[in-house]
Amino acid sequence: xxxEMLCGRALATCLDEIEKFHGFIAPGIVLGGFMVxxxxxxxxxxxxxxxxVETQHCLPDAVQLFSPCTVGNGWMxxxxxxxxxxxxxxxxxxxxxxxxxxxxxxxxxxxxxDWYMRLVPKKSLPIANILDDILTAQRSVLCSCAITxxxxxxxxxxGEIRVCPSxxxxxxxxxxxxxxxxxxxxxxxxxxxxxxCQLFHAVVG
Length: 205
Description:
The chain is an alpha+beta fold. The chain has helices at 11-22, 27-43, 59-66, 103-106, 110-116, 127-137, 181-185, 195-204, and strands at residues 5-6, 9-10, 49-53, 76-78, 85-90, 95-101, 142-148, 161-163, 170-172.
């Protein structure tokens, strides 16, 4: 039976927040909500915790939606390991809990298992079926263990800022005497503006 509450909020509210944040009710974020809920319960929500997420897909969104840890405030680190797992730990003593999707347990929920393992084409596996499995399974497809963090716990602080002598934009001094873009290491090339864009700028200006 679907839970009434998740992460201290009504389930319907959580699903609505996921849809607004992600664009649709992503199964990975819903499953991630149960993971965040359990991990924060284990560590105690009163603890000032940081998070480490072991995949770039969906799970970081769940952490940002259902905990104070975000990329922007530096309380969450994302590892590109593609493991559906997360850890919350006390930032003072580095002890905490890891929660992950147990594939053996997930086999009891075919839609969830097939979705995660990509065994069935998306068009053949409606999201509603996956969500039904996740809401039925809840924590039963998860595992947890107590941990002590040994790596990746350092917080990256903002370093010295300089003004690039070439483009006059602020940039991290660690990049060198010029910003990466002016060194030819940027990710874009400027393209000529279309006539309507030039007209817009003229009107606004």
